Each structure stands twice: as C-alpha cells, then as structure tokens.
Amino acid sequence: MIDIEVLSDDDWQVVRDVRLRALRDSPLAFGSTLPREEGFREQHWRMRLRSGPWWVARRADRSGSAAVGLVAMIAEPGSTSDDRHVVGLWVDPEVRREGVATTLLATVVSAARAEGARTVSLWVAEDNAAALRLYDRLGFTATGEREPLPSSPERAEARYEMVLG
C-alpha cells in the first residue's frame, strides 16, 4: 500500500534524505548533483519546501512506513502563469514499475488543476528512456525545447508538457 503525503517546511529532513537518496541512486537523471545538495543547510531545504508543494510516497511495512518516492510542483520561472512544473520526481528502485510515479504525477496534475493551471510541464534527460516512456504513456508530449542538462552539459534535456482538459 502506497500513501501520498504533502509535506510542510517542517518536513525538510524528509525531503533532504529522500532527495539525497535519489541523487545517489540516479545521478544522471537530475539537473543537480549529490555533492552540491549534500552541502545544503536546513534553511535551503526549508526554502525549497516553500517554493511549491512537495509530496512523498510512503509504503507501509512492519517497522512503520518508508519513503519510496518524491515529487514537487512549482511555478517555473519564465513559464506562463497557467503552467505548473514537475520537479525532482524519483521512485525507489525497489518499488519501480508498481505505479508510484504514476500516482505521484497524478497528485501533481490534480493539484495543478485545483490551481487553475492549463498545463503541467517538466524537463527530462533525453537519454532517460524509462522516464520518457512513463511521460509518453501519461500523455506528456515533447515541446521541441531542448537545453544542456545543468549537471552534465554534454547531455541534453527536453521539455515535455501535458495540456489539462
């Protein structure tokens, strides 16, 4: 059973811990790096949580619940006011292909609709085949925008968008 929980800035340690796990597990999937984010202090993590809603996916087990996924939604600088942007989506390898990413993205889409957004967008590394399959399956389409991946400028990332109906 997976539960999705919205986080507050008092949950900064949860975001920090899961985000650092994500960067250790999938360093090529993100625009940031583990060394950069390991240096962040409490105030930076709290600021991130105030930039838009963050959700954690938790799986119940005998010892309580374990965080197995993370995602955030922001109003991306430079985007239209009716776009909401997906940031930092990650799912623990032990539960991949069990619908956790789909559930986290559905949570973002629902929140974006509640805010009156017309689109939900994201950037994805062009060589991240699993993520591209997920986004295509869920109805995201490439916008044609590309840029160097900040953490690895020799690689490219592409912007994808879902138009909300």
Explain the overall architecture.
The structure is a single chain. With 165 residues, this protein is α+β, with helices and mostly antiparallel strands. It has a single domain, classed as Aminopeptidase. It has helices at residues 12-25, 34-38, 42-50, 100-114, 129-138; strands at 2-6, 54-61, 64-74, 83-91, 119-125, 141-149, 152-163. The chain starts with a strand and ends with a strand. The model has no long low-confidence stretch (mean pLDDT 94).
Summarize the structure.
The chain has 165 residues and is of the alpha+beta class. The chain is built from five helices and seven strands.
List its traits.
165 residues, alpha+beta, globular, Aminopeptidase
Layout of secondary structure:
Layout: E1 2-6, H1 12-25, H2 34-38, H3 42-50, E2 54-61, E3 64-74, E4 83-91, H4 100-114, E5 119-125, H5 129-138, E6 141-149, E7 152-163
Parallel strand pairs: 4-5
Antiparallel strand pairs: 1-2, 2-3, 3-4, 5-7, 6-7
In order across it, which strands form the biggest sheet?
Answer: 1-2-3-4-5-7-6
Taking the sheet with the most strands, its summary is: 7 strands, mixed
Unreliable residue stretches: none
Averaged pLDDT: 94
Looking at the overall shape, the CATH architecture is 3-Layer(aba) Sandwich
CATH class reads: Alpha Beta
Number of domains: 1
Secondary-structure content class: alpha+beta
Count of helices? 5
What fold name goes in the CATH topology slot? Aminopeptidase
C-alpha geometry = globular
Oligomer: single chain
- Report how far the terminal alpha carbons are from each other: 29 Å
